[in-house]
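Hey, I was hoping to borrow your eyes for a little while. I've dropped the whole record in just underneath, so have a look:

——
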Amino acid sequence: MKPRDLSDHVAYEPGRGIEEVARELGRDPSEFVTLSSNENPHGPSPAAVEALQGAAEGVNGYPKVAHTDLASALTHRWDVDAAQIWLANGGDGAIDYLSRALLDPADAVLVPAPGFTYYGMSARFHHGEVREYPLSKDEDFAQDAGTVLEAYDGERIVYLTSPHNPSGSTIPLAEVERIATETDERTLVVVDEAYGEFAETDSAVALVEGRDGFGARDDVAVLRTFSKAYGLAGVRLGYAVVPAEWADAYARVNTPFAASELACRAGAAALEDDEHVSRTVESARWAREYVAEHANAHVWPSDGNFVLVEVGDATSVAEVMRERGVIVRDCTSFGLPECVRITCGTDEETRRAVETLNGALAALDLADDANARANSEVSDR
């Protein structure tokens, strides 16, 4: 007895955590900081922690009212109908719901390369095919309709990521609208805004609802998560905002009670904690600027809670930094073996990361090469 042929499937490679690395190296976890998974360095919303503690004794029941309450809160936040909010077990759970709702066997999805692996994973789980459109490092990972449409060939779902992971670039809503207009009627454009709170761009929910000068569309959906700005990665909570015309499909594709009682209670509380979110966003903005100013390597502008840095040999630099107590993301798995991604930490963590990065570059004799590349790229622009 064997599972079906999974040879075309790829495994998701998460950023490495403190306990994992500390055990591997036989060291005390307190020696490390982890800036590899774009987690919130300020922890969860205090209001969410209180809600979690208060809800703990009720986890013997299924999340009925809590689910309804959170959906209602998001309805008010985005000014949409309740049926348009598809709560899920993380943003990846929402991706699965969209795959279930849209993909027939052999349907294809179009995804960015580099990009979030799970777009393609979910399509393959549902017997779909995966095609890619390139985001070029030489063009600073710029996102525009022309790049996507040039690669488009009738795919059922087109994924856009704004801000994009791992580069931090965004795509203007006018470009999203053009993509939706110039693709087939049966194509859904999904805008993943997992890092949307950190960006100054408007949400693509405006396209779903027809606001801010845009007409309402039935071919755009938006993904959001509580993992990043709200600091709730550990409870796994995300959602999709979908067009009103087919919102009732949720009842037919969702996993029963996938958004847990604790997750829903924590999410509802975090949604009201504007102070925590503001602090997180401001901290990330400062960290992005600090790394760009002080790193001895090229740093791409970012609208996320992370920055992408060109270091020449990502695996070697990440290894040296790890040995010195700072865990960053080797972007080889993204197809960028010359880059590392550094999550925006606290002020102290960010300063330590930059110092450690520069020390690793110097130790590996990569600093001069990295600076030369950075200066060359600046002069070419």
Notes: The chain has a mean pLDDT of 92.
